[in-house]
Amino acid sequence: MGRLIAVSNRTAADPGARAGGLSVAVWESLKSTGGIWFGWTGDIVENPPSDVNVFRDDGVEFVLTDLSPNEYDKYYLQYANSVLWPVLHYRIDLASFDPDAFPAYAAVNERIAGIVADRVEPGDSVWVHDYHFLLLGDSLRSAGWNGPIGFFLHIPFPPPEVFRALSEHQQIARAMCAYSVIGFQSQQDQANFTRYLVDDCGGVDESDGVVNVFSTRVKIAAYPIGIDATGFEEAAKTEKAREAADRIGRFLGGRSLVIGVDRMDYSKGLPERFEAVGRLFSEHPEVRGRVSVTQVAPPSRSKVEEYRELRQMLDGLAGQINGDYGDLDWIPLRYLARSYEREELAGLFRIARVGLVTPLRDGMNLVSKEFVMAQDESDPGVLVLSEFAGAAEQLKAALLVNPHDTGMMADTIHEALTMPLEERQQRWRELRDIVQSQDVAWWRERFLKDLETLHEGSG
Ligand code: GDG
């Protein structure tokens, strides 16, 4: 394969962001092929200069651009995060439709495509990531690039009935079909998009995930993203991990730890999870004083109104549960609205008896896989996982729950807390085998192989 060219809104130019799954995966290929990573600097500048910020780091070239205040507002905050994010997570009710947002979104996609077009060379493969850049492939084609372009959507793709809530749904779908390969996290997402193309756009579903539509053929498949499984397993055994485990151990005083780690986002189902914790203590009084729930929820995108409301709701629910059930020497639910280092999180996962991963809707959910890899084989914790996370298609040995059903969740947390060691080990081994074999390298290689094969076939 020639050079890999990656495009994503945020890149791994920030060393702090490099430990994440996507960064690790893309970084490897960029380094080995001498590739380029295009994206946003993270800066908002009154009159963004027409030239880009170019630098090299560890064999990878970064080509980044600033956003203007209007682009930041209309493209990033509005269309990407207040329209696409909610609608693609099945939450039309939370979308705020602003007529100026889509043109700005399309303009940013076109502007960044122009920056990419100036630097791609024959033999390169372009890999575009996520919902910020649904239109970028089409703009890149208009700018004259006819080499391979793949696209991977990190978040869910909803059923056509929901996708049609976007006034621009046809335009978006048509532009997406300029990509040679469109990758989704789950078979459910793949089926939803294919059904949209067939039912609404007259597409013909040929064999092997190829759909013939808009006078072109596009490969649509599920490529569930994995984690750096070995790396996370090692992170859980570091000194930093042990220190974090000791610190929380002092607080626990021998009680069982139930842990949740999620960006503070309405898709993660945190209010429902807190309600389930309240029901656990009310309906299973024998666990009172014996279990402590800790939820780490670093705030995200705090400028958007819904997140402020979510924060207030969580503050209220946690206060109520602790007020109702807490005691002089016991805090039932601790909620930490801050971030921790990766090794620290790994250390907390390792000593937890239960991991709660209960999003209302999630593309994949990497925390579920990290929780599995951090466990100690001799005494593994139990994963309670939402059936609406992409990860549920792979992690069938977890205890699957409906995150809307707080009574069922409470009973399932109780089941996890009382599960015999043998069953915990058996379930954990099954989960570990999948997370380890279907890791981030497996994901990247499957995607890039299809991109290469398909392009050869069409060339
Ligand atoms: C999108 C899709 C898809 C969390 N808190 C801290 C911290 N984290 C890390 C976790 C995990 C990552 O952030 C979160 O990944 P998720 O997959 O759970 O969720 P999104 O951020 O919504 O990601 C999602 C993903 O893209 C990949 O395709 O799975 O469905 O929504 O790695 O550990 N990391 C550190 N401190 C924290 O406090 N260091």
What does this structure look like?
With 459 residues, the chain is α/β, with parallel strands linked by helices. It has two domains: 4-226 and 440-458, Glycogen Phosphorylase B (Rossmann fold); 229-437, Glycogen Phosphorylase B (Rossmann fold), CATH 3.40.50.2000. The chain has helices spanning 21-33, 69-88, 101-117, 136-142, 160-163, 169-176, 187-201, 229-235, 239-252, 270-283, 305-325, 342-351, 366-374, 406-417, 421-437, 440-458; strands at residues 4-7, 36-44, 53-57, 60-67, 125-129, 149-152, 181-184, 204-205, 210-213, 216-222, 256-261, 291-296, 333-336, 354-357, 382-386, 399-401. Strands 3-4-2-1-5-6-7-10-9-8 form a ten-stranded mixed β-sheet, sandwiched between helices. Strands 13-12-11-14-15-16 form a six-stranded parallel β-sheet, sandwiched between helices. Helix 4 links the parallel strand 5 and strand 6 (149-152). Helix 3 (101-117) crosses helix 4 (136-142) and helix 12 packs across helix 13 (366-374). The chain is globular and about 65 Å long.
Topology:
Elements: E1 4-7, H1 21-33, E2 36-44, E3 53-57, E4 60-67, H2 69-88, H3 101-117, E5 125-129, H4 136-142, E6 149-152, H5 160-163, H6 169-176, E7 181-184, H7 187-201, E8 204-205, E9 210-213, E10 216-222, H8 229-235, H9 239-252, E11 256-261, H10 270-283, E12 291-296, H11 305-325, E13 333-336, H12 342-351, E14 354-357, H13 366-374, E15 382-386, E16 399-401, H14 406-417, H15 421-437, H16 440-458
Parallel strand pairs: 1-2, 1-5, 2-4, 5-6, 6-7, 7-10, 11-12, 11-14, 12-13, 14-15, 15-16
Antiparallel strand pairs: 3-4, 8-9, 9-10
